[in-house]
Amino acid sequence: MDLRFGAGKPTDEERAAVDALLGPPESAWEGADDRNDTDLRWARGGREARERRELLLPGLHALNDRVGWISEGGLDYLCRRLTVPPAEGYGVATFYAMFAVKPRPATVVHVCTDLGCAARGSARVCTGLERDLGPAGSAGSGAVWQPSPCLGLCERAPAALTIRAGDAPQAAVVAPATAEAVADAASAPHDAPAEPPAAAAVPQTGADGLVLLRRVGVVDPGSLDDYRTHGGYAALRRAFTLGPAGVIREVTEAGLVGRGGAAFPTGRKWAATAQQPDHPHYLVCNADESEPGTFKDRVLMEGDPYALIEAMTIAGYATGAHRGYLYLRGEYPRALRRLRTAVDRARARGFLGEDVMGQGFAFDIEIRRGAGAYICGEETAIFNSIEGRRGEPRSKPPFPVEKGLFGKPTAVNNVETLVNVLPILIEGAQAYARTGTGTSTGTKLFCVSGTVARPGVYELPFGATLGELLELAGPPETLRAVLLGGAAGGFVRPDELDVPLTFEGTRAAGTTLGSGVVLVLDDSVDLPRILLRIAEFFRDESCGQCVPCRVGTVRQEEALHRIKGLTGAAAAGDIALLREVGQAMRDASICGLGQTAWNAVESAIDRLGAFK
Predict the structure, then answer these.
(1) Which of 6, 291, 430, 567 could serve as a FRET partner for 414 with CA atoms 20 to 30 Å apart?
(2) 505: which strand partners?
(3) What strands lie across the sheet with 443-450, from one edge to the other?
(4) What is the maximum span of the chain, computed from C-alpha positions, in angstroms?
């Protein structure tokens, strides 16, 4: 291992930030001030050093949170403490959009310019910020603002997030955003208006038939007692009665499939993990929902955090995992606060820890923050990120149930999938399966945004039609198209609103349900510009590991730039090129990002007649 530390020295602030996470250094090798020859002769090595590498991402957050950026001296000090080569630490730090390795002000403003916010006027916000704060990336005003991918605030678009580094980092969400409100939040994040309650994102609050959303707006998200009063931890008690195999049987018979887009049977995944002889087993909750237009998991975590903690505990019990990692996207400050509170209070009351509910089962949860990388929504990229490496997907096989996090059997589920386990255990598998259709059972959360009257998270039984969903949300008078599944999804025409919202129904209609994104576009939306934004998004978010995706996403964007104002024969050559590049990405990319980067553009050309 070639460490090659540079000559940079950490500032007192940087040293304090790292030491607060790792504790004081134990030797001069790790940076202690009491240097002597004996002290320099030893350093951590072997397994002890490797096991500390997982603290690299939290360490980078600690530096970024304290100072606002990561200097060479600060990075060297962190890497010395963890026995990580600085070159590798630099590679990790530069992988994530929320970190900076060049000086910048302590206050950074992220302004969403993605699909939902673009449809709601984010361009006006950016124009105003150029006037008030200077050009994007300019630090002249004491704060720097930058365009951002989706912030998961689509129901309040356009949106902005202000983060101020310091001893006590501050974050302020401004949504709906105006340039004036964002500039005010940048100057004083602590004075920004409070966010509306999570229930404001649920237009159906109080309606009959809600299952996953029934407690949002009803319970106090900070109160464990209130959660228990409304049925909390009844599912975990039944899980202990059934035993691990019984829990897996119930989940399998209920027909629960993953809600993140892949629709893999959850019971099969849990059974495969539980059966592995290698130990320990791990559970990972994928709460890094960064698909543009997706915000359902955020609403669940902000409005009903204990439900996720209980569901993760059940999943750990069923799969034989005694440790769970909750990988939360870095742009969710309120969800982070509420989940930290929920984990701490559950642990203090015996619902997490060495003896959960006195049943002799040990399980605990660690929250890990992402730092702005769409690719980390891919399950194996999450493993690399948690382990302190660049968040690049791994080749499969081996599959996560065999060799996942830290090379051990791992079950990965997203927030919505896990929370579905609670009604399955409370109602029973048969009762749960009676809702929905034969192959898509239960209810589904849909993230409706764009040009609708009532954007938000809606819960409907599988089998409801797209038209029925839009009627609830208030469709525009002149509907141009609906994008299902987000940037990796496909478009639906106004005459196709009878498509059933099931995994099999959307596939038969030539589109995808994905994670539940329903982006509504009216005639005022510039469709070529939307397609170009999708292409820009995939170009930026490609991890660059494989050639088909790394090159293909760039070529796709270049072709769309050339033809955005063209039609007919003038665009034919580039459309043919787009098809060739898109097929190559679909066939040869390592992971789902490259395999789906062409989907929305293809559907716009073939279904909407773009560029004709």
Answers:
(1) 430
(2) none
(3) 456-461, 443-450, 517-522, 479-484, 490-492
(4) 78
What is the C-alpha separation between 314 and 294, in angstroms, rounded?
A: 25
**Digit-coded pLDDT (tens) for 80-127:** 999 999 999 999 999 999 999 999 999 999 999 998 999 899 999 999
The span from the CA of 405 to the CA of 414, in Å, is 16
Q: Label residue 395 exposed, middle or buried (CB < 10 Å: 0-12, 13-18, 19+).
A: exposed
Which pair of structure tokens corresponds to residue 88? 């590798």
Radius of gyration (Cα) for the chain, nearest Å? 24
* CA dihedral of residues 506, 510, 514, 516 (deg, nearest 10): -50
Cβ pair 43, 30 in contact under 8 A: yes
HEC assignment per residue over 409-469: CEEEEEHHHHHCHHHHHHHCHHHHHCCECCCCECEEEEEEEECCCCCEEEEEECCCEHHHH
455-471 per-residue burial string, b: 16 or more CB within 10 A, e: under 16: bbbbbbbbbbbbeebbe
Q: Locate the DSSP E strands across 502-547.
A: 517-522
Q: What is the pTM of this model?
A: 0.95
Residue keyed to tokens 């397609």: 531
Q: Which of 488, 510, 506 is nearest to 595 (CA)?
A: 488
